[in-house]
Specification:
CATH topology of chain B: Alpha-Beta Plaits
Low-confidence stretches of chain A: 6-17
Number of helices of chain B: 3
Largest sheet of chain A: 7 strands, mixed
Oligomer: heterodimer
Number of strands of chain B: 10
Number of strands of chain A: 31
Strand content of chain B: 35-45%
Strand order of the largest sheet of chain B: 5-6-2-1-8-9
Strand content of chain A: 25-35%
Low-confidence stretches of chain B: 1-22
Chain lengths: 710, 167
């Protein structure tokens, strides 16, 4: 022993001498530990946004009220608006100018959105597409602003910059003051079925009718806060909106024979609905088990055959909403059902054309009701009076109303795929009433904050709707293909929505999976649910930022999750944990009877051949390695020689000293026959080939080939 | 080539609006296995889509994954894939061996193999799977050769792409 020590010492000495001769000093480094706190990555807490993740004492938020008169011109597919905006400056700052969003300008002739798309010549195309792409004149979209005026009718100075308009004030708007002005505008409505878009009309050539789903249709105030200042980033067409809350008084004039659904309380239902419809609506308000038809398919079919030249005006009032949208058509069937949210009645509505029936009649309103119930359970009681799902043939959300896809085949039948897709999107879009319509995060900057949280909540509602619901996104195993993909086309979740490559996986799938993992594997349901509810309630009707979410989840649960946010949200790292090797030992009294020696069994595999006189236990030293950059718990399943299994989870913090490799000494009364990491696929491990010992893993292809041979 | 891929991703997403459910999507995983000197290909497509396509093309009723499933239906699948899917490896057309298929949930997995491939510098993929039957069909190709991952999203108008690999 002594000799060895001496030898070791001399080696150390020689190497250090050599080292000293070759280089002066070793370079140091900053804290690279994966468990380092996020302080440098998150904004410094302040009196508006506290270190606990809650809004602070000095938290303020602007308020914007709108009064609008809207006319829909069905003949020319145009919309006209005259709006009065009342802007309340609740901030401590005085504002020299105000910014207004002109989303429709994304479709204007001079829009730069097409210019920033790279494109190339396709391999082939259809006659129709060829004509549309290379021959037809571009659609004349965009706001035609007729006037911007003060209340007294004098012109108000303004500057349009693409999708943004600056209102130039004569004198700055002081803190606590309000400013009122008027905008008169119109625009040509796009056909969203042929030209795309998150609002527009769908034309039915058979009966000559249009279904309108109208949104982002009026000049809307930008958000001003202490995170972005004015959120006046251009609207390129993808990253959605940041909006202030306010009250809306809206009059919408449509052809007299239209049926319409919109954000807000319908103030003149006796003027716009028939006596029969009012009676049915009354019945629906106390019917909790089945949707009640307010306008039947037969009635809608009769109405869609003629076109009234007369008009009528629908009058709405919406309190404390961040946006406004509506849908209207001659073709709409309308059904309604009451939903009990903790003793308060909320109405679930669906508006759909006969082409969407019976799929919508069977499922739409029920899906709306389920969403309101499940989301209310996990966040806060749905505070609005209704939620509408519209057969809009897209998937897009606005306060109290959303536009959804899915139609049956011409013979009225529909496959499970169509059915579940329609229910899934409906739940998702209705769910957006919670995130971001109420928990009002900034989607222009952070898509994931509403899409990710909502995609996670959507899973819970789907499973409540149907316990066998085919969940396609959100389980850890479903994100593996994305996360394991080409790193040059993957962005961290913490990226601006306009800049991410695979939008669906980046802003929906991966954050939803991350939350699922937190709940199921890292935090546990109870702690997660409490923290998630705390976040939702702290920030309802407010503007949360990512830091407010990260901090609240820790603050309310007592779990440090900085390592998780860092890995999953700020990097594109993947989970890959493997078993590098297993050493096995038995214990025996040593020769001098002074202690116990551990004798290694160097044979292959896990079987230990031990002498009869040995101590009763079996000893293993397992080396786990981590080719993946993410730190995650090591979930291990031990199988024993009597067939029993035991699962043990070593928390992620096991990697705190060594990010690449850790060893674990395990002892048991029974022999271990198999060791498997992450047996239930909870961690999105991208490479399962190193997850078991002895390694019997084959790739999918080899497995199939073997199966075919047998 | 990369630009084309980004363009497609950007283009397709606004058209789909914001539910982002790529409902007409197949995935073709192309993996070069050094040890067996073969290109192993796994394709998954939605079962109801491929069934609709083959039923229409051949006026049959496949009844996949049911008790009434048509026997020997591999002939249809193999034929379909030979017409819809071609590979050129290092600029030379290479035929694949149809190993078989299996079902999992609402997906059908096809297993194809191109044998005797000693080195790969490029793979040209022509993938017209389901393009004829579904306007919005997209076919995602993910490939791995050595340590290089390359992927491309193909569609009705862009059904051919060459992926290159450093050696």
């Amino acid at each position: 022993m002594k000799k060895i020590e001496l030898l070791l010492l001399s080696i150390v000495f020689i190497t250090s001498v050599n080292f000293a001769q070759n280089s002066k000093t070793k370079a140091g480094h900053t804290n690279q530990n994966k468990f380092k706190q996020l302080k440098e990555l998150l904004p410094t807490p302040n009196l508006q946004r506290t270190a606990s993740g809650a809004p602070g004492l000095k938290y303020t938020q602007q308020k914007v009220d709108y009064t609008m008169d809207i006319i829909l011109d069905d003949t020319n597919t145009r919309i006209y608006g005259n709006e009065t905006i009342t802007y309340h400056n609740n901030s401590d700052d005085s504002l020299a100018y105000l910014w207004v969003q002109l989303d429709q300008n994304m479709r204007a002739a001079d829009s730069k959105t097409p210019d920033i798309q790279s494109n190339s010549i396709p391999n082939s195309t259809s006659e129709k597409r060829f004509k549309k792409s290379y021959i037809d004149a571009a659609f004349d979209g965009g706001f035609k602003i007729e006037s911007v005026k003060n209340l007294d009718g004098t012109n108000l100075s303004h500057t349009v910059n693409q999708t943004m308009m600056r209102i130039n004030l004569d004198t700055p708007l002081a803190s606590g003051e309000k400013f009122q002005f008027k905008i008169k505008w119109w625009y040509n409505i796009n056909n969203h079925r042929t030209d795309g878009g998150r609002s527009g009309y769908e034309h039915f050539s058979k009966d000559g009718n249009n279904n309108y789903v109208i949104a982002q249709f009026y000049p809307r105030m930008c958000v001003y806060d202490n995170v972005e200042g004015w959120q006046n980033d251009q609207f390129w067409g993808r990253s959605e909106f940041a909006l202030e809350f306010g009250d809306f008084s809206v009059n919408i004039t449509t052809p007299e024979d239209h049926m319409l659904g919109a954000t807000g309380i319908l103030k003149n239902e006796v003027e716009v609905l028939s006596r029969k419809e009012l009676k049915r609506l009354e019945k629906a308000r106390t019917t909790f088990d089945n949707p009640v038809l307010i306008r039947t398919q037969d009635e809608a079919e009769k109405i869609e055959k003629s076109k009234s030249k007369k008009t009528k005006t629908w009058k709405f009032y919406a309190e404390n909403v961040r946006d406004y949208a509506f849908a209207t058509s001659r073709k709409f069937i309308w059904d309604a059902m009451a939903v009990d949210i903790n003793g308060k009645t909320v109405m679930a509505y669906s508006l759909y054309s006969k082409e969407a029936n019976p799929l919508y009649g069977d499922h739409s309103t029920r899906a709306v009701a389920q969403t309101l119930k499940t989301y209310s359970k996990y966040t806060f009681d749905y505070p609005y009076h209704k939620a509408i799902s519209v057969d809009g043939q897209m998937g897009m959300e606005y306060p109290q109303i959303c536009f959804n896809p899915g139609r049956p085949d011409a013979d009225g039948t529909y496959s499970d795929k169509i059915k579940y897709r329609m229910i899934k999107v409906t739940i998702h879009e209705v769910g957006h009433n919670f995130f971001p319509m109420i928990v009002n995060s900034d989607e222009r900057q952070w898509t994931w904050m509403d899409e990710g949280l909502n995609s996670y909540m959507e899973m819970l509602a789907e499973l409540d709707y149907d316990k066998d619901f085919p969940i396609t996104r959100g389980y850890p195993k479903n994100i593996v293909k994305y996360m394991a993909g080409d790193q040059s086309t993957i962005a961290p979740i913490m990226s601006k929505g306009d800049h991410v490559y695979e939008f669906g996986n980046n802003a929906y799938g991966k954050p939803a999976t991350a939350l699922w993992i937190l709940r199921e594997t890292i935090m546990g349901k109870e702690l997660f649910d409490h923290a998630f509810r705390t976040y939702s309630q702290r920030w309802m009707f407010k503007h949360p930022s990512p830091a407010d979410f990260f901090r609240t989840m820790e603050d309310a649960s007592g779990i440090d999750l900085d390592w998780f946010w860092r890995g999953w949200f700020f990097t594109t790292d993947v989970t890959d944990i493997g078993i590098e090797g297993v050493r096995k030992f038995y214990a025996t009294n040593n020769a001098s009877k002074e202690g116990i020696d551990f004798i290694e069994d160097n044979s292959e595999g896990l079987n230990i051949t031990k002498p009869t006189s040995a101590k009763s236990k079996y000893f293993y030293e397992i080396t786990f390695n981590k080719p993946g950059g993410l730190v995650m718990p090591i979930i291990v399943e031990y199988t024993y020689d009597d067939g029993s299994k035991e699962k043990k989870t070593y928390p992620a913090q096991i990697w705190r000293y060594n990010d690449k490799k850790v060893t674990k000494a395990v002892h048991s009364d029974k022999q271990i026959t198999k060791i498997v990491i992450d047996p239930d696929l909870e961690t999105a491990d991208v490479d399962l080939s190193n997850n078991s010992f002895p390694n019997t893993n084959k790739d999918q292809f080899s497995k199939f080939k073997t199966k075919m041979k047998n | 080539m990369k630009l084309k891929k980004y363009f497609l991703l950007l283009l397709i997403i606004p058209l789909l609006s914001f539910s982002v459910h790529k409902y007409y999507l197949s995935l073709t995983q192309v993996n070069y296995k050094e040890t067996s000197k073969s290109v192993q290909i796994i394709i998954n497509v939605f079962m109801d889509d491929i069934e609709t396509a083959l039923n229409k093309d051949h006026n049959i009723d496949l009844q996949l994954s049911t008790k009434k499933e048509l026997k020997n239906n591999d002939i249809y699948f193999e034929n379909y894939l030979r017409n819809a899917l071609q590979f050129k490896i290092n600029n030379t057309s290479r035929a694949f061996h149809y190993v078989g298929k299996e079902y999992e949930g609402d997906l059908v997995y096809f297993y194809l193999e191109i044998e005797n491939v000693s080195k790969i510098s490029s793979i040209e993929v022509t993938n017209k799977i389901l393009l004829k039957h579904f306007d919005k069909q997209e076919n995602l190709i993910k490939s791995k050769v050595g340590t290089t991952n390359k992927s491309v999203l193909l569609s009705k108008e862009y059904y051919k792409e060459t992926l290159t690999y450093k050696n």
